[in-house]
Specification:
With about 190 residues, the protein is α/β, with parallel strands linked by helices. The protein has nine helices and five strands. The protein starts with a strand and ends with a helix. The structure holds adenosine monophosphate (AMP).
Length: about 190
């Protein structure tokens, strides 16, 4: 049986959101994207949104305590009870530890961390293309460079973290969307 408590890990532009949406369709469990939730908070002008906006526009990570609060609240909702696809959370070791503590309280555990690997030149090209299509305010070249640096410094250590926890599956993120989706499916079943 396919794992149902999943985390998609990978640098910006690796295709986490795209693959998460395919898994939502196939597994019938929700995608939990802190990036989407933070963008919604920014649009709605909530206190979380006001705090997060300047970090997001600069391509910096939003402080752990803010993101952890947002993710915990979402994970406690009923529809996440039978499974979830975490997309873009956790992004730091402190966030990963907070997630472990929460899941323990909920008496469940993370079953698989799919790490999408993609060459960096390919990533920047993808992000610039997405900037044209979606017009995301953080998809300019300066912010993209900062997001890559943030990834390398703060998020990449999670690959080792989840390897040590015995739940890491590395998946080649290069290729067309369906091809990558098949690899992901193989990794989680
Ligand atoms: P994403 O849509 O996942 O690429 O996230 C867009 C931006 O939201 C990131 O560049 C961060 O500024 C912020 N963000 C999203 N998720 C997190 C997280 N788990 N920790 C810190 N910042 C985050």
């Amino acid at each position: 049986m396919a794992a149902r408590r999943l985390l998609l890990l990978g640098p910006p532009g690796a295709g986490k959101g795209t693959q998460a949406k395919i898994l939502v369709e196939r597994l019938g469990i929700p995608q939990i994207s802190t990036g989407d939730m933070l963008r919604a908070a920014v649009s709605a002008g909530t206190p979380v949104g006001v705090e997060a906006k300047s970090y997001m526009d600069a391509g910096k990570l939003v402080p752990d305590e803010v993101v952890i609060g947002v993710a915990e609240e979402r994970l406690r909702q009923d529809d996440a009870g039978s499974g979830f696809i975490l997309d873009g959370f956790p992004r730091t070791v402190a966030q990963a530890e907070a997630l472990d503590a929460l899941l323990e309280k909920l008496s469940v555990r993370l079953e698989c961390c799919v790490s999408l690997t993609v060459d960096e030149d390919e990533l920047v090209g993808r992000l610039l293309k997405r900037a044209e299509i979606e017009g995301r305010s953080d998809d300019n070249e300066e912010s993209i460079r900062t997001r890559m640096q943030e990834y390398r410094a703060k998020t990449e250590p999670l690959v080792a973290y989840y390897r040590e926890h015995g739940v890491l599956a590395e998946v080649d993120g290069l290729g067309d969307i369906e091809e990558v989706a098949k690899r992901v499916e193989g990794a989680i079943s």
